[in-house]
């Protein structure tokens, strides 16, 4: 039986109190806490995707005289100018539009490099149900977001890659409504991620936006997990914290139809003993339709049941050792520019991973669109999911920790029912140091409390002493699985040097080489000694394979990476042109030699 979990809403409230100070410049107005509903994509909702009017606001004039949130008299009020009315110097209805979901950078050339405040507005008709909550759902918005409905500020949020839900019941009305969302992706030292990243700081409403109604008492969290003994434990949380409410879990295919009562925290606990359960695995990604009911609320989900554990340096899936054949993926769209957000994007990216004979993907370096983890559940691809605690974060700043904790909470809350997700990663390439290690330990403790059923990891820069890898990062003892990044043949040495390197695993924990690879411009050919040619990239992979085959304790691999992606630090003309070219496929979908080189290697390792 997993350890008791901190009550979600209590925890989230504590977090928000802590994060409030992040909105330092909103000190004159308490931020309004968004909430998080479960399985939004399984709830009937009205999509607000499509064209939204925008106002680009580098001087933050839209906040009105205050020049900052709450800006009650600013653009959030969404007033329509009238020729004879009071002076007004903005009008959404007369302003251009861009598409939601989507980043703004790749939709208009003049916004390509834009980092700052941008206002979105949309008018929509709505017929709110009585005795219900109306919720505004945002799949993700980079980075700092403030939402208004009919001029009323309804929620504030920071963090660019996790969903949030705003309670708008008191602001919504029958008929025509206005929603205005201010999004600011200005980078700041105290943010997560911080000032420097090797990916493009795309701004905007990058994932689905919708409005939905849920009953007065509704399910805001539900999870079921398989135990090693084949029984299932689970919990359903009904928002409103009432005791004695009946909750039902029904899994028709397993002839399970059980009820339990909520405790004084609104949680109902379940212990199920299914007969003939088919476990989920990459070879057999079996999902079961689960129906939850509480009062008037109904919620469905498609859930796979599997166990994941470690034993010495082995990762055990359903009790058996598994070798992870993986690739890293950045959240960018294939063939077209910008952030990925569609079913087609997910199908193309995970389709290529399948073609590579991957049974594993690392979604770098932030939670990706939920379509990716949903599809991974259906395709049988194991997932490493990560929060963007990336490179040097402002370790000793409590606001930064609060934001990282909030993102971790939201990542776990959204995907803790996905069988595909086996690893929660706390960070990537963070420089060892006491503040950093203390920071990560806080996150690890939170993740273990929120979800004791998954493995905790981080990607660490591999330190070398001469040609020996020294795996002694102080955070390693706190992790279940160790991710080590290395670029032998690219940032250090030659492709053929790799087999000469020796690796030990002093902690006897499962080790995943979470990044390795080299750059190549698709279509550029030449001697295997010339950088950026496909031949050089392929040579790096060949060298790596010879090294891997000498590392018996290796539990998995994830090559860096599946597809070229935009990065502001990659400026070599006619080669990089603003792209990190370590993809096995170009951003236009052209497969490089290394695609089949890795494909063959993984085919041999199956
Ligand atoms: C780093 C980092 C990635 C980066 C990659 C590279 O290790 O984790 O985000 O893109 O190396 O340099 O290509």
Report on the structure:
This protein is α/β, with parallel strands linked by helices. Helix content is about 15%, strand content about 30%. It has helices at about 10-20, 345-355, 370-380, 400-415, 435-450, 535-550, 595-605, and strands at about 45, 50-55, 95-100, 115-125, 130-140, 145-150, 150-160, 165, 175-185, 210-215, 220-225, 230-240, 245-250, 255-260, 265-270, 290-295, 295-305, 310, 315, 320, 325-330, 360-365, 380-385, 420-430, 455-460, 465, 470, 480-485, 500-505, 510-515, 555-560, 565, 580. The strands form 8 sheets. An 8-stranded parallel barrel has the order 21-22-23-24-25-28-30-31, surrounded by 4 helices. It has a 6-stranded antiparallel β-sheet with strand order 3-2-4-9-6-7, with no helix packed on it. A 4-stranded antiparallel β-sheet has the order 1-10-5-8, with no helix packed on it. Helix 2 crosses helix 3 and helix 6 (about 535-550) packs parallel to helix 7 (about 595-605).
In short:
This protein is α/β, with parallel strands linked by helices and 606 residues long. The chain is 16% helix and 30% strand.
Write out key terms for the chains shown.
single chain; 606 residues; alpha/beta; 8-stranded parallel barrel; 6-stranded antiparallel beta sheet; 7 helices; 33 strands; 16% helix; disordered N terminus; binds alpha-D-glucopyranuronic acid
């Amino acid at each position: 039986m997993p350890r008791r979990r901190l009550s979600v809403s209590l925890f989230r409230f504590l977090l928000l109190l802590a994060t409030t100070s992040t909105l330092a410049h909103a000190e004159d107005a308490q931020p309004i806490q968004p909430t998080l509903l479960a399985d939004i994509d399984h709830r009937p909702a009205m999509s607000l995707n499509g064209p939204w009017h925008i106002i680009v606001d580098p001087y933050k004039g839209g906040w009105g005289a205050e020049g900052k949130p709450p800006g009650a008299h600013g653009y959030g009020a969404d007033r329509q100018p009238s020729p004879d009315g009071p002076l007004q110097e903005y009008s959404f209805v007369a302003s251009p539009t861009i598409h939601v979901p989507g980043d703004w950078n790749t939709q208009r050339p003049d916004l390509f490099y834009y980092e700052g405040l941008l206002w979105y507005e949309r008018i929509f008709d709505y017929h709110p149900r009585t005795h219900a909550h109306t919720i505004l759902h945002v799949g993700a918005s980079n980075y700092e977001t403030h939402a208004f409905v009919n001029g009323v500020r309804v929620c504030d949020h920071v963090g660019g890659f996790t969903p949030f839900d705003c309670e708008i019941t008191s602001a919504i009305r029958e008929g025509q409504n206005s929603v205005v969302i201010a999004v600011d992706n200005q980078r700041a030292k105290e943010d997560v991620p911080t000032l420097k990243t090797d990916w493009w700081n795309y701004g905007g409403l990058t994932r689905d936006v919708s409005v939905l109604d849920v009953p007065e008492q509704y399910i805001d969290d539900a999870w079921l997990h398989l135990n090693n003994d084949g029984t299932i434990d689970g919990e359903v949380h009904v928002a409103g914290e009432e005791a004695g409410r009946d909750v039902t879990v029904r899994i028709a295919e397993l002839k399970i139809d059980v009820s339990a009562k909520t405790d004084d925290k609104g949680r109902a606990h379940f212990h199920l003993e299914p007969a003939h359960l088919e476990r989920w695995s990459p070879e057999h990604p079996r999902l079961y339709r689960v129906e939850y009911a509480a009062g008037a609320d109904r919620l469905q989900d498609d859930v796979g049941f599997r166990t994941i554990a470690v034993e010495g340096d082995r990762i055990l899936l359903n009790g058996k050792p598994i070798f992870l054949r993986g690739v890293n993926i950045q959240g960018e769209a294939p063939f077209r520019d910008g952030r990925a957000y569609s079913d087609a994007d997910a199908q193309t990216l995970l389709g290529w991973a399948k073609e590579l004979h991957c049974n594993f993907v690392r979604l770098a370096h932030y939670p990706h669109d939920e379509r990716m983890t949903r599809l991974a559940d259906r395709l049988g691809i194991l997932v490493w999911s990560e929060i963007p605690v990336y490179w040097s974060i402002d370790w000793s700043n409590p606001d930064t920790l609060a934001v990282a904790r909030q993102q971790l909470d939201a990542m776990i809350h959204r995907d803790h029912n996905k069988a595909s997700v086996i690893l929660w990663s706390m960070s990537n390439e963070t420089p060892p140091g006491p503040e950093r290690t203390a920071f990560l330990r806080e996150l690890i403790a939170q993740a273990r409390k929120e979800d004791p059923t998954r493995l905790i990891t981080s990607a660490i820069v591999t330190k070398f002493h001469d040609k020996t890898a020294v795996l002694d990062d102080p955070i390693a003892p706190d992790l279940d699985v160790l991710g080590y990044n290395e670029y032998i043949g690219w940032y250090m040495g030659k492709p053929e040097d790799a087999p000469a390197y020796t690796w030990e695993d002093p902690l006897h924990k499962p080790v995943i080489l979470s990044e390795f690879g080299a750059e190549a411009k698709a279509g550029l050919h030449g001697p295997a000694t010339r950088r950026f040619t496909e031949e050089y990239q392929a040579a790096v992979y060949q060298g790596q394979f010879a090294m891997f085959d000498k590392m018996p304790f290796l539990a998995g691999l994830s090559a860096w990476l599946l597809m070229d992606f935009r990065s502001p630090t990659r400026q070599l003309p006619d080669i990089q042109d603003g792209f990190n070219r370590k993809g096995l496929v170009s951003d236009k979908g052209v497969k490089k030699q290394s695609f089949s080189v890795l494909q063959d290697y993984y085919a041999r390792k199956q």
